[in-house]
Amino acid sequence: MNLIIDAGNTFVKFAIFEGRNIVFQEKVETKDFCKAIKMMFGRFPKVSHAIVANVGGLEKKDIAVVAVFCKVHQLNYGSKVPYRNCYATPKTLGVDRMALATAAFYQFPNKNTLVVDAGTCITYDMVLGIGDYLGGAISPGLSMRYKALNEQTNRLPLLQMEDLLDFIGNSTESSIHSGVINGVCCEIDGVINQYRQRFTDLTVILTGGDAQFLSKRLKNTIFAHSKFLLEGLNYLLEYNKH
Q1: Hey, which residues are catalytic here?
Q2: What is the per-residue pLDDT for 97?
Q3: Out of 3-12, 72-81, 182-191, least confident range
Q4: In which residues is K(+) bound (predicted)?
Q5: Taking the mean position of all CA atoms in its chain, how far away is CA 65?
Q6: Is 228 annotated as belonging to a binding site?
Q7: Less Cβ around it within 10 Å: N or C end of the chain?
Q8: What is the CA radius of gyration of the chain?
Q9: CA angle, 162 then 99 then 190, to 5°
Q10: Cα 194 to chain center, whole Å?
């Protein structure tokens, strides 16, 4: 069994894989990490390996707790990857993007694949059918755009994401929702169209926390896959065991 740990700044996502199947998933606040780890190994004592994708929320002492129970691989730029990395600055490539590229490489072999991860940021990652990872783009996600409008103006309120009734806003609040939601959808559709013009037979994967909300609003044909990052991390753990 493999333990997958995807650690953000506030929350940590756990997944336990048996082979390629997820048998357990949980999300906890970073402050509850050690307690959750001990409970998890009490419930799943057969976990032998773990991978940690840490963007800053976990400290060394937290990762050391995991190492008490099993072998741990901390994902970084020096980790082995199955694709050819053509990124100009591989040391700065986020571990989440490494995992997404890996999932694309294994799940869509010999296909040109664009992965759109709609979370705190929206990332675009392009993997060619020949196995080359090219890079992509990074832009602000939905929640970041709502916060920016509030924090960088004097009067605009901080809103929570909700359904957009019309792209023409007839109040300040509906105008903000239109600008954020319609803006993100137009961006994603526009970026996908750019990639389709350059790459034939393009497969597009949409994942991340806002994927479900956005999937029904996009014009392009996409595959929504909520567990794509976790599966990519599991592939990387297997790839780095030897």
Answers
A1: 96
A2: 96
A3: 3-12
A4: 117
A5: 25
A6: no
A7: C
A8: 19
A9: 45
A10: 22
Residue 78, phi-psi category: left (phi > 0), alpha (psi -120 to 50), beta (remainder): alpha
How many residues in the chain?
A: 242
Mean of pLDDT over the chain: 94
- Homologous superfamily of the 84-233 domain (CATH): ATPase, nucleotide binding domain (3.30.420.40)
Q: Is 38 annotated as a binding residue?
A: no
Asked whether 53 and 5 are in contact (CB, 8 A), the reply is: yes
Q: Which residue has the tokens 């020096």?
A: 78
46 Cβ neighbours under 8 A, 6+ residues apart: 1
- Across residues 189-203, what is the average pLDDT? 95
In the structure, what pLDDT confidence band is assigned to residue 57 with cuts at 50, 70 and 90? Answer: confident
Looking at residue 48, its amino acid is S
Q: Is 132 annotated as a binding residue?
A: no
Asked whether residue 23 is marked as a ligand-binding residue, the answer is: no
The token pair at 66 is 């995991």
Tell me if 12 is assigned to a ligand binding site.
yes
Q: What is the location of CATH 3.30.420.40 in the chain?
A: 2-74, 84-233
CB 58 within 8 A of CB 79: no
What is the CATH architecture assignment of 2-74?
Answer: 2-Layer Sandwich (3.30)
* Number of H-type helices and E-type strands within the chain: 8, 11
pLDDT above 90 for 56: no
- Asked if residue 232 has pLDDT above 90, the reply is yes
* Residues 211-219: contacts with CB under 8 Å, at least 24 apart: 211/118, 213/142, 213/161, 214/118, 214/184, 214/185, 214/188, 217/164, 217/181, 217/185, 218/185, 218/188, 218/189, 218/192, 219/189
Give me 224's structure tokens: 């929504």
